[in-house]
Write a structure and sequence with these properties.
222 residues; Alpha-Beta Plaits; 8 helices
Amino acid sequence: MARLPRLVLAGQAHWLIQRGHSGRVVFTDAADRLLFLAALKEAAASEQVLIHAYALLSNEVHLLATPALASALSRTMQSLGRRYVSAHHRRHGGSGTLWDGRFRCAVVEPGATLLEVMVFIDGLADDPGMTSQAHRAGGPIDGMLVDPPEYWRLGNTPFERHASWRRIVAEGLGYGRRETLLGAARGNWAVGSAAFAAAISEIAARPASPRPRGRPRSQAPL
């Protein structure tokens, strides 16, 4: 079966996932993560991509980003890959790619679903510097990050928003909901409601959700 084109729409938030090659470690320590974030900031600014959230796990990257142009996400990830791989090899030695094939990319429905994806990403790790959680929870402000309207609606003051975010991330998402969101993201589908997936499918002229498994039911004769 031919591979579907990547589902990317200008002006929409997207959940990007990039894994290390064969599960290898791509971030050894805080210095590696700082190098990656510096490369991300430069690449995103150059391509007019807004970064809303990130998680830099030892062998996997999660980003929530909105491109001004549909082609900007691929260019950002390509530039980011070149910059970070070069810096990583200078620091640790080695050669070749760090990444496992194409990055995953899923368009995210605005509103409650987008907020859930941010909670998912910010809650992937507790250690400082591994996620963007501190930026929204009263820690140092990260000038690279752009908070979406969904976050601003959590309170009228920074204190209220910080408190709300700490509470929401601490509560987390149920296992079933986490698996549903992650499955859509890893499948390069739309992340959100069936109505949202249908609308995205119309715009993109390609399926935005997986087809139901099994053979279609036959109708009983009249």
